[in-house]
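All the exercises in this workshop are built on plain-text protein records. The record below serves as our worked example for the rest of this section.
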Amino acid sequence: MKIGFSRADEVFREDIAQWMAEHLSGEFAPLRFRGGPGDEHSFPEERKAWERTLAAGAWIGVGWAKEHGGRGLSISQQVIFHEEYARAGGPGRMGHIGEGLVGPTLAAFGTPAQQQRLLPGILDGSQFWCQGYSEPGAGSDLANVQTRAKLDATGEHWLISGQKVWTSLAHEADWCFVLARTEPGSQGHHGLSFLLVPMAQDTIRVQPIQQLTGTSEFNEVFFDQTITHADNLIGQPGDGWKIAMALLGFERGVSTLGQQMQFHNELDEIIRIARANGAARDPLLRQRIAQAWAGLKVLRYNSLRMLSGPQDGNLGREAMIYKLAWSTWHSDLGKLAMDVLGDAGEILDAAPYQLSRLQSLFLFTRSDTIYGGSNEIQRNVIAERALGMPREPRVTN
């Protein structure tokens, strides 16, 4: 695990900090610290324009290999980029799914033709993606996917029918990657395939889900004989589970350091308010703030340990604990925010009752231990896959 940075790395840090200061201004100034979890509905068109600005500065795909159009930066410099991006208040990335998940998956499993056709739209900030994994009966138990796909009579197109849920920004996406069952009668992780689906079709219905925060960045997505070309299958039929798991491994990559810097920004805001309203004089709140600070440091060191291994989509033991660790920590931070705010956390001045930043943080963090794999399931993953303990007994009817 590497904790320090070289002088060249620190020069790079100064470069990205300066670039962010110069570009996150003017028309983009209102985007600072906006568009993150719980606020993803904000400024979608402006954030798409910001993606194109990032592309012009060659700040998309910084960790991608050069043969795929990326910059091939070292892990150290990728960490610095994500940290400085968040430190400067860079907005939530509209292109995160494409850059962080689809791109590495195409690089690992896609054909050269698929890479040449689909990677440029991610790199230039013109194509946006959403994730078609979870279903009403297949959330943490992803292997229970029921969405089905079959080849048409010509063998040139897949026809997809089914429902996905909790699909972030599906209403803004150009493409969706869909885990679907392509082998009739198959069960569990067998018979699944990984398909790329263009969203601009009448056979796709996107229905927003209103959340506790009052926003609707999540959606249900319904497919009714939706078409995608046979060339949009990644790997072979039946490879879907392997590819889906690798993609989740890429999700726990270097961008986790940027996520933690966003957490740091939230903690800084809590500390600022605690000092302003006197909550910092409460010894119990001071202790909880100190514990939050220490917990965030532990998350950082575990991420650096996680990134010291191969970045091939395989989940090491360190990566398996990350979701459980950050979601528990962040959920506790939401509670801390409300306790620091005191009575002010429960009231708003007047209609239309726009939530404050910390009120939105608290409400959204109620979902942290559920989405992306519930904490109960994550504990099973750690026990069975990381520690080699016996599998949990399956209840049968």
In short: The mean pLDDT is 91. The first strand starts at residue 129 and ends at 132.
